[in-house]
Amino acid sequence: MLILEIYLDILTGEKITEVASSYTSGMLYSTAKKQALDYMTDASRACANRQGIDEALCMTNVKIETQKRLLDELARVADFCQRANDPNKCRDDMAQKIRKEESELVRLNKTLSMYRARAGK
């Protein structure tokens, strides 16, 4: 998180333009997404030896856990918006990104239910 804090120090400098400050929410989102995808890459190895519906169930569970971690991380890094040049814009952008990721979690849960029904679990 050190790089994130250094970047925010640069963005909140007096000579930084408003355009540069609008990138803050995108940078925060990208950081959280990268951490979640790193987790998913590691966790998906547990599904490698499975096939068919068992593999689909395993991967969907990994994706759901990844999505939950992403939402937790997004909620945590959204606090950094207070350091942006335009904190309200940053918070609004982050709220929109969080809503998008929450809808993806709902979709993944529906997919999991469908796979469970097919597998009889």
Features:
single chain, 121 residues, mainly alpha, elongated
Radius of gyration: 18 Å
Ends distance:
40 Å
Share in β-strands: under 5%
Q: Globular, elongated, flat, extended or rod-shaped: what is the shape?
A: elongated
Strand element count: 0
Backbone structural class: mainly alpha
Question: Could you give the order of the helices and strands?
Answer: HHHHH
User: Oligomerization state of this entry?
Assistant: single chain
Summed over residues and divided by their number, the pLDDT gives a mean of: 84
How many domain modules?
1
Specify the number of helices.
5
Helix content: over 70%
The residue ranges in which pLDDT falls below 50 over 5 or more consecutive positions are none
Largest sheet, strands/sense/barrel:
none
Structure in words:
Helices cover 77% and strands 0% of the residues. By secondary structure, it is mainly α. It starts with a helix and ends with a helix. The relative contact order is 0.16. The model has no long low-confidence stretch (mean pLDDT 84).
Topology (elements, then pairings):
Blueprint: H1 2-11, H2 18-21, H3 24-43, H4 52-77, H5 87-119
Helix pairs in contact: 3-4, 3-5, 4-5
Question: Summarize this, please?
Answer:
This protein is mostly helical and 121 residues long. Helices cover 77% and strands 0% of the residues.
